[in-house]
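Worked problem 6 (solution included).
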Amino acid sequence: MDDQEMHLKVKRVTDKFTESMFVLANEPSIALYRLQEHVRRSLPELVQHKTDMQSWEEQSQGAIYTVEYACSAVKSMSNSSLYFKNIDGLLRQAISLKEQISNSQGRSGVKPTINQNETSTHASVTPP
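Solution. The predicted structure is:
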């Protein structure tokens, strides 16, 4: 081999070695650059997803509160059945007393007088 050929082969080997060392030395910075690039592209979309999720969470919390409030209202209504039974009994008693008064006035021949200052606002209710 002559000296020039040897010199060319040594130069090729050293160039390849230098290039490999350069790539190995810069590989972490290239990787970090790629990561940074990826984050820059995907971050706005991730932020939008986060705000959407927060909005949905707020709406869900509002709906949960509404449902819980409605459930408590229904429970309190079921506890009020005693009061409705008392009202029903009092209404039946009032209707019965009115019928007794009407019957006693009908037998005696006395017609009830209507005061001109009073107006009738109650509808007649018949017991079931």
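Discussion: The radius of gyration is 47 Å.
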